[in-house]
Batch of 3 targets.
Target 1
Amino acid sequence: MAEVETPSDAGQVDTPLAEFIGYAMKRALSIVQADLSRVLGGFGLRAVSFSALSIVVAQPGLTQTQLADALQIERSNLVTILDELSGRGLIIRAPVAQDRRRHALMATAEGQTLAQAAQTAVKTHERALFSCLTPEEQHELKRLLTKFRGQAGA
Amino acid sequence: MAEVETPSDAGQVDTPLAEFIGYAMKRALSIVQADLSRVLGGFGLRAVSFSALSIVVAQPGLTQTQLADALQIERSNLVTILDELSGRGLIIRAPVAQDRRRHALMATAEGQTLAQAAQTAVKTHERALFSCLTPEEQHELKRLLTKFRGQAGA
DNA sequence: TATTGTTATACTCTATAACTATA
DNA sequence: TATAGTTATAGAGTATAACAATA
C-alpha cells in the first residue's frame, strides 16, 4: 500500500463545502448560538424560552397552539418550556371564557421586565458579535435571510 | 379576570424576534436543511455524512482528528459516521506507516462517484431553493455569512 | 368528530469521560 | 506522558402517538 501524507492545513480543509450557502449558514449560526446561550444563561433562559417569552410579551393572549406555530415547534414540546416559564412566575396560562380548552398566555410584570432586559442584552451582544460587518452589511444580511424565508418558506 | 381576545394572525406573531439576525438565520437554515435532507436521502446520506465524504474526497489522507476539527464535531461522534461510510464501501481507513495510531481517510472510487453526484444534486437544489434571490443576492449572502464566520469565529 | 393541552416515548444530536494502542 | 481512535453514556432537542377535556 502506498505511503500517505496527511494534509497539515486542517483549517481550510472544508473547501468543497464552501460553495454551499447552507453550509455557510450552519457554521455562522453555530457561532451566534454559542454567544446567545452565554448571554441568555445570565437570565436563566434558553434560546427557545427567550423566544417564547418574547412572543408572549408582544402578543398577550396567544394560545399554546398559536405560539407553537409561531416558533415552529411541536405543541407537545412547548409544554415543558411553558412549565418552566410559568414555574418562574414569568407567564401565566389564563383561562379563556369562550373556549375552555384553550389557555391564553400572558406575561407577568416580572416576565415583561425580564424579557425587556434579555432583549436589550441580546441586542447588545449581537451588535458586538456582528461588528466585523458594517452596519450596511448587517442590515443586508438580515434582509436577505428574511427575504429568503419569506419566499422559500411558503 | 378580564376577557381575553386571542390574536388571529399567528403568521406574523414572531415580530419581536424579527430584529435578531440570529433568529433570521435559524429560520432560514431550517428551510435549507429540510431541502437538503430530502435531496441527500436519495443518496442514502445525511448532511453530516455528505460533508464528511466530500472533505475526504477533496483531502485524501486526512486523519479522523483533522476531519472532526474541519467539521467541528467531536472525534467520538465521527466514528459512527465513518463506520457508516466505510460500511457502504465509500471510504477506507488506511493505515499510516509513520504513526500506527492514525487512520488516513481515503474515498474509494465508488465514494468519489457518489460524492460527485451528491454535490451536483445539492448544488442544483440549492440553486432552485435560492432562486427567490437574485444571483447577486445569493453571492452576497454567502459572502456575508463567510466573512462573519471568518472574523467572528476566530 | 375535531381541537387543545398534555403525557409518554422514541429517535437523533451532541458532549464527556474513560479505555486501548501507540507514540 | 500525550495523542488517536474508540466505546459507553448522558443530556439536549425533536417527532409521534395517544389520552382527557372540551367544542
Target 2
Amino acid sequence: MKLDERHLVQLAAVVQAGGVTEGAAVLGLSQPAISRTLAQLEKRLGEPLFVRGRRPLAPTPLGKALAEHGQIILSASRAASETIDSFRRGTSGVVRVGGSPFFMDGLISRMIAGFQDRYPDVSIEQSYGYLSDLRASLQAGRIDVAVCPVDVLDEGSGLEFREILPGRNVVACSSTHPLLMKRKPTSCDLLEYAWIAPPPGSPLLADLRSILHSLGVAEIKIRFSGGSLASVLNYMTASNALTVLPHSVVFAFRKGGQITALPINIPHPDRSLGLLRLTAAPRIPAVDTFANHVADAFADLGQLIKRHEQAIVWGA
Amino acid sequence: MKLDERHLVQLAAVVQAGGVTEGAAVLGLSQPAISRTLAQLEKRLGEPLFVRGRRPLAPTPLGKALAEHGQIILSASRAASETIDSFRRGTSGVVRVGGSPFFMDGLISRMIAGFQDRYPDVSIEQSYGYLSDLRASLQAGRIDVAVCPVDVLDEGSGLEFREILPGRNVVACSSTHPLLMKRKPTSCDLLEYAWIAPPPGSPLLADLRSILHSLGVAEIKIRFSGGSLASVLNYMTASNALTVLPHSVVFAFRKGGQITALPINIPHPDRSLGLLRLTAAPRIPAVDTFANHVADAFADLGQLIKRHEQAIVWGA
DNA sequence: CAGCTTCATAACAATTTGTTATATTAAATC
DNA sequence: GATTTAATATAACAAATTGTTATGAAGCTG
C-alpha cells in the first residue's frame, strides 16, 4: 500500500515529540492538521497507530515501525535543505575544473588542497586540456571553470576571462646543472645539452620554438617528450637535460631543491594564465568560491615571487 | 530552505530513470506533472537542476545531490509500504506476549524460536505474570496475548480464551531420585524429602496445597522457593528435592535426562492452559499468526504426550 | 530536412492542506 | 468524586497543490 511521504513525516514527528500538539509545533503546523492526518492514515490502514483513549500518547507497534521510516524521510528532507543552503553559501557542491597539465600538476593541485582545507564539503573534479578543448568543455557544460594560458588578444566567444598571472617562462634545469657554474650562459651553451619537449599541443611547445628562434638557434636535441610534469621533473633531476617551463611552476618547486632556472633571459609569451568561465553559465556559488580562492592564491604567489626576485636576480 | 518531500522523490525518479517521461512512468504519474514539479523546484531554488537544452537529460551537480536525498526518501517510503503489507500478512510486526513464568520458560520460549524460524520479521517481546496481572496488561494494551492457566469456570471480562492444553500436574524429581526405585511411592514417602515451592502467587502453589490436602498430608518441608524454572530444575537435578510441575513442562525437559515425574497420581487442577486476548482489541495479524503457531505447537505436544503414554504409563 | 521522441506549457477539475473555532475526552486537583 | 485543566478530535471553509488531457516547442535520428 502506497502512502504519502508527508504523512509519514508527520507521524514521525508526533511519535518523537510524544504528542500531537508537540509534533505539530516541531513541524510548524497546527494541531488539527496533524490530528486529521493521523485519523486519515488510520482509516486508510484500518489499523490504529496509537493506543486510543490514553495519555501520554503511545504508538502501537505498527505506528512505531512506520514512524521510523518517517524519521528517515524527515532526516533526508532536512539534509536536502542543508545541501541547498550550503550550496548557496558556496561551501558545498562540486566544482569541475579543467586546465593545462603543467599548471594543474604544478600549482593548482596544491591550491585545491588548501581550498579543501577551508571548504571540505566542496568536491573537485579535475581534468586536463588546452585552450580549445577547455573552451569546448566549458561550452558543453562538462566543466565549470578552466585554468589555462590564454593569448592576451584572444577574447570573445561567450567566455569570461580573469587574468591571474602574467605569462613568463624560464629555461629549467637540474639544480646541479653544469651551466649554473657559468655566469652568463650563451645560446650556444644551450645547444650542448639534451632537451625535454613540453607536451604536444601545449603553449609551452610553441613558446619553446619561439625562444629558439629569438636566440637564433636552429634546432635542438629533443631526447624526451610526452611526459607529464612529474616525469619531466624526475627526468630533469636525474640528467642535465633542459626544458622550458613556466616561471611560477619552477618557483613552486624550488623548495624541493631539485630544479632551478638558468640565469638566461628569454622572451615573455604574449599570454597570461587565467580563469575561464562561461558568461552565460548559471552562477554556481561553490565555483565562485573556488575561483576566488585560486585567484587569491596566485596573487599571493605573485607577491612571493616579487619579494624573492629582490634578493635573487634571474638572468642577466 | 524547506522543500517538499514529494518533489525530491520525483526528482530522484527522473534522475534515476534518466528522463522525465521514464521517471513519470516509474512513479505512475503523467509526464507533465513531473515536468511542472521540476520547473517549480528550479524556480524556487533559482538554480537549474538539469542541463537545459540537451538530451539525454543530465542533472547538474546540485540536481544530482538533491536526487540522492530524494532516493533515500523514496526508499524509506517503499520500505514503509512493505512494512504495512507485511504487517497485514502477519509476517512482520511485534507481538507482546505475557505468560506464567514456568510455561514461558519451559515451553513457550522454545515455540517462539520455532515461530521465528518461519517468521523472522516478527519480533517477540516477552513478559511474565499470572492471571490477574496478565488480564490487567491485556486491558491496558501492554501486551497483545497472554499464555496462562485459567480456571475453567473463570470467564467474561472482555477476554477471549482459547484452550491449548488441559491442566495436569505431576510431582517432579531428579531422574536419579531414590523414590523412583519404589514401585508405588506412598504419601508418607513424599514427606521424607525436601520440597521446592513454586513461585508465590502461581497457580502451581495453590495446586501444591490442594495436592497435599488430597494426599492427607499436613505439612511439608519447603527448602527452596522463589526461583524461576531454570533454578528449580538445577536445584532439583542436584538434590533429591521434590516439587509440583505441569506435566507438559516435565515432558518437555525429558530429553535432558535430568528430571522426571514420580509414578504417583495427583488430582488434576480444574484449570487449563490457554491463550488470552482482548475481545475488543484491534486484530493484529502477526498476533494471530503467533497465536495459531502456539496453538499448533501445543496440539503437536499433546499428540506427542499421548503417544508417549501408550508406551510408558505414568503413575498407577 | 522529415519524422519521431521528449520535454514544456496551458487550462481545468479534484483533492489535499492548512487555518480557526469548538466540542470531547482523559488526566489532575482539590 | 466533582471540578478544573490540558490535550485531542471534529467541523467548516479558504487556498494551494496535484493530477489530468491537449497541445506546442525543441532535440535527436536517419
Target 3
Amino acid sequence: MPTTSGPRTTSQRKKKSSKKSPGLDVSVKRRFQTRLLKWYEKHGRDLPWRKTSDPYHILVSEVMLQQTQVERVIPKYHEFLDRYPSFEELADAAVSDVKKTWYPLGYNIRPERLHSIACETMERYGGRLPSDAEELLSFKGIGRYTAGAIRSFAFNEDAPILDTNVIRVLHRVFMAKGDPKTQKAKLWQLSEALIPSGKGYDFNQAIMDFGAICCTARNPSCRQCTMKSFCKTYPFDQK
DNA sequence: CTCCCGGTAC
DNA sequence: GTACCGGGAG
C-alpha cells in the first residue's frame, strides 16, 4: 500500500460523502474526530472499568451500564468483582446469590444472563470471552450495543457503538432533522464511519463522555462546545 | 404523587 | 411494539 499521496488523492477529495455514510463531509468528520479526542484528553472521566483490560470486567461493567446510571454502577461494580473475580467464580456461583449481589440495580434478568454468559464462556470458550461480533451476539444479554462495547473496550477493535448518548450526539451534530429513533440505521453507519482507524477504544469512550457531560439531553453546554462551529443543531440551548 | 427514561429479548 | 426495574424530574 502506498503511503504517499498522489494524483488519486485529488479525485477522492472531490467527493464529499461516501456510500457508507452519505452526507458526511470529510472535513467535518476529521474535525469532529480531532476535537472529540482532544476534548476527551481534558474532560474524560476516570471510570473504574477504564483501568482494566480484562474482558470479564468490561463485560460486567457494560451489562450493569445497560440501563443504570454510572454513579449507581460504580460501587456495585467493585462489590460484584470482589465476590466474583472471574468467569470461573461467577459460573460456579448460585444464580440466587448472583441476583442478591446484583440488588438493587434493577432489571434483574441481567444477573441471570450474566451468569449464563459466564457458564457458556467456561464451557464453550475455555473461559475466554470471544471477540467476534456474531459470537458475542449469540449470548442472551448481549445485544448490538454491548457487543460493540466489548469489541472496542476489551479487544481494541474499531467496532461501532450506539447507545442513547451516542444517538443524541450524532443526531445533533450531523443530522439535526427528524426523529433519531427512526434513523438508527443511518446512525449506526455514522458511528462506524467516524471511528479513526485504530482508535475505537478512545473514540467510543470519548463520545459517550461527551454525551454525558457536554451534549446532555437537558441543558447542553452549547456555548462552550468544541463542536459548535459545525454542529447542525447549534445553538440548541437558550442559556 | 405521576410520568419519563433505557438495552435486550420477545 | 412491550416488559423489565429503579432513579430522577416535575
